[in-house]
Amino acid sequence: MMRQPASIPVGISDLYSLNGQRITLSQELGRGGEGSIYAIAEHPQWVAKLYHANKLTPNGLAKLHLSLRYPPQNPAIAAPVDLLLNHRGQVLGFMMPRVPQGYPLHDLYTPRSRRQKLPFFTYTHLHRVARNLSVAVSALHHRGYVIGDVNESNMLVNPSALVFLIDTDSFQIRDRLSGVVYRCGVGKPEFTPPELQGKRFDRCDRTPAQDAFGVAVLIFQLLMEGTHPFDGVYLKSGEPPLIQDRILAGYYPYGQRSVPVRPKPFAPPLTTLHPQLQSLFLRCFETGHQRPEYRPTADEWAVALTQAEQSLISCQRNPRHRYGSHLARCPWCDRTEKLGGRDPFPGPNTIVPPVPKRRSRSKPKPPRRVEPTIYQAPPRRFARPKKPFRRNSRPWQVIIGGTLSLILGYGGYQHWQMEQGRQMKVQEIAQLYGSGQYERCLQAVRQVPLSVRERVQSLGDRCHLGQARQLVRSGQFSGALAELRRVDDPTLAQDTIAHLHQRITSGLLDEAQAFYNQGKPETALAVLDRVPQGTLSPEQRQDLARQWQQGWEANQRRFEAAQAALGEQNPQGAIAQTQELTTDHWQEQGQDLRDRAYGQLVNQALSEDNLSQAEAWLEKIQDSRQRNRLASRLGTLRDRLEYEANRESLQQAWAALYDGDFQLAQERMSQFSGNVSQLDRFGDERPERLRQALSNYRQLQTWLMSDDWQRANTWTRQQLQRFASRRVSCQEVQLLDQLWNEQSSGEQGLRQQLEYKQEQEILGQLNLSLEQQQQLSQMYPRRLVMGQTGADLDYRLANCLGVN
Fold first, then answer.
1. Which of the residues 14, 82, 107, 149 is marked catalytic?
2. Which stretches of 435-537 are DSSP H helices?
């Protein structure tokens, strides 16, 4: 037995696409935290992503189906094109376009990585990459997607400066029918806008304006040698804040506001950029800090980057130096000199591999001669005491007094030093409060000794208030209420506390209502109990709890009534009961009953051959398995009704043909639909035979109308021969006779010949007189003398045309 390649996981060799095509995986191309990437033997232009065990959640599966329903429709986006199923129909992964050779976006930031991966890239190429990135993001936004996790790792650049977006299964997408948003639950802090810093991404609906912040950071790093727009030298004392803290505070060092950060000395100057780009960065990082709607869109970036690229000119000293025409001199030549000769865009002849520095061994120095140093002690001098020594002078008193003075003096210094430390701690807490770092402020308050606690109590209360405000903004109402309860001074900012209590009450009531709608009444009541006492009276609490209880019981009764109606084969009654269910939980519970009720209605319509009504009821069923099962029955009915309609049209077309109404016959033929080949079972009356007969008799009519008797007579003789051999029906012979009579005004035709023969009593006779032969030769259509066959033909024609 042939063994499976080691790179393919065991148990997934049988893979299929949605249309049932067998999919064969070859070598593994990559592996990540969610899944692995494989090449596909049948589709080399695609790759397969197989999820690791338990990594494809129901939310992720729904997102994949939506991606197939609303594809981004852009070759720069490696979006799913089909699903991968096992033999049981379970989704194991998906297929997506194979991205050509590319490098992560961050490989273009610094000269060293550019020289290694894309050595021919100039500043023009970086502008082109930034523009293509903006175009790809714009295409996503116009299709209703939001990237969410904007970062340099999910974007690849190929040698043609084309940008490809990967990891698209993490993008946020909204179902246009139900309105459900399938979120992106991850993100990098350094690309996250200030309004999302510190929040849980799986609880936030992202917006294109938030994507715009991350895109602007990427463009800034591309065009500024990898410099982050919020990086710089921190001008205040203490630990420099992290990048995400600077984003939150709005410390954009290239803006117009005064911030405690200045650009790094070796970062390229902002004037290197085109003035339009400088303006867009200012809008994004400064104006858009508080107002995200002011941030430039991806379309605006694409237009501005195109203008900036078109304005680039070449340096006379190094043609690989491209810079904006708004500059008086080449900034890259200046930067090369500033970096000690390290050229950001070196010429092709100057790109050489770096030579490692050799460490020179230091030669040991000879030992120094040490000359002995002779120290001479100064002569001792003895002073005579002014007063003679007395035994009763008590020298111990002097010693004790001096010792006490030293102790007291050192203790006072220690006290002063401790007081200074306390003052510094108080100042630190005040600074934390002033900068809005309430959580760190509260941590510092808890760490101060009890002797200083009273001094910082007011600051601690204010930090509790600030923390409560932040928690209210982020929707954490229970945490905000806990912070307010820690405020010791109730007279502090009473209006603010009252306003926060009102917002917390409103938020908790909304949260409790949401739990109730989700079918969690116990949790809703628990949240209701946390509402501040002063903002909601006990009567109001009881009224709300009573409303929930009554609503729950009413929904329970409607649900049970719908079940009973369904059991009594009363689908309309069941649907009417479920439509009165009032909460999301009960609507979800009732959806299964509605689907079953609509299934009963579909079956009723199928039993009545009412295809249109059955299709209408089927559209209302949301359960895919039930829809597929009933759709198969609808297909059977559709084929049968289609066959019956085609059969009726075929019969009507033959009848119209035999009546000589060729126009009506053609109209009935045009009504054929679907699988017409099923009508081939009718043999000589099959559709193809009808088309040929209609064409032939139209041609005969044309010959007769144009007095082309010879060709009309020849074709008629052929038909009579076929009639004699029983290959043409009597109806067609009657049509022949009708056409000859109509076009000859009743003078010609088969009936006239038969009536003459009957009158002459030579019907079916073989020996005719000369006069009889001459008379018959003047009657069209002329028939050949066919011996006994001709005699038999006379009788068959007489029976068919009713000539006795």
1. 149
2. 438-447, 450-473, 477-485, 494-517, 521-529
From 45-49, 440-444, 546-550, 704-708, the region with the lowest mean pLDDT? 440-444
Answer yes or no: are the C-beta atoms of 292 and 304 closer than 8 Å.
no
Tens digits of per-residue pLDDT, 158-181?
Answer: 999 999 999 898 999 988 777 889
Q: If we measure between CA atoms, which residue out of 147, 144, 141, 117 comes closest to residue 129?
A: 117
Cα–Cα distance measured from residue 552 to residue 290, given in angstroms and rounded to the nearest whole number: 43
CA distance 743 to 681: 35
- Is the peptide bond prior to 265 cis by the omega test (within 30 degrees of 0)? no
Q: Are 270 and 285 in contact (CB under 8 A)?
A: no
Burial class (CB in 10 A: 0-12, 13-18, 19+), 219: buried
| Cβ atoms of 169 and 142 closer than 8 Å | no
Pick the CATH number of 103-338 from 3.40.50.2300, 2.80.10.50, 1.10.3720.10, 1.10.510.10: 1.10.510.10
149 is catalytic: yes
The span from the CA of 674 to the CA of 206, in Å, is 47
Task: Judge whether 50 and 93 are in contact, CB under 8 Å.
Answer: yes
Percent of the chain with pLDDT over 90: 41
Extract the tokens encoding 797. 């024609």
Cα dihedral value 71, 73, 78, 80, nearest 10: 20
Residue 112 has pLDDT above 80, yes or no: yes
Q: Which long-range contacts (CB under 8 A, 24 or more apart) does 188-193 make?
A: 188/149, 188/150, 188/151, 189/242, 189/243, 189/244, 189/247, 190/217, 190/228, 190/243, 190/244, 190/247, 191/150, 191/151, 191/217, 191/218, 192/244, 192/247, 193/247, 193/292
Question: 164-173, 440-449, 510-519, 683-692: which range is least confident on average?
Answer: 440-449
Give first-to-last CA distance, the chain, whole Å: 82
Could you give the 3-state DSSP secondary structure of residue 475?
coil
586 by Cβ neighbours in 10 Å (0-12 / 13-18 / 19+) ranks as buried
Average pLDDT on 776-780 reads 76
Q: What strand order describes the sheet that includes 181-182?
A: 145-146, 172-174, 181-182
pLDDT at 474 over 70: yes
DSSP character for 147? -
pLDDT digits (tens, 9 = 90+) for 722-747: 888 888 889 999 999 899 988 888 77
Instruction: Indicate the fold that domain 15-97 takes in CATH.
Output: Phosphorylase Kinase; domain 1 (3.30.200)
As given in the structure block, the two tokens for residue 187 are 């993100």
In whole angstroms, give the CA distance from residue 604 to residue 176. Answer: 32
Number of Cβ within a 10 Å radius of residue 107: 18
CA 223 to chain centroid = 28
Block residue for tokens 């715009």 = 212
Query: Which residue type, as a one-letter code, is found at position 34?
Result: E
The token pair at 294 is 């002011």
Contact between 460 and 483 (Cβ < 8 Å): no
Its pTM stands at: 0.47
pLDDT of residue 437 exceeding 50 = yes
Q: CA 562, CA 631: separation in Å to the nearest integer? A: 25
Which amino acid, residue 289?
H
* The residue type at 687: P
Query: Virtual CA dihedral for 47, 52, 53, 58, nearest 10 degrees?
Result: -70
Query: What's 101's DSSP letter?
Result: S
Sign of CA dihedral 784, 789, 793, 795: positive
Does residue 311 carry a pLDDT above 80?
A: yes
C-alpha to C-alpha distance for 112 and 696, rounded to whole angstroms = 83
Q: How many other C-beta atoms can be found within 10 angstroms of the C-beta atom of residue 804?
A: 6
Element (H, E) at 324: strand 322-324
Contact 553, 545 (CB under 8 A): no
Mean pLDDT of 581-606: 91
Cα separation, 484 vs 479, whole angstroms? 9
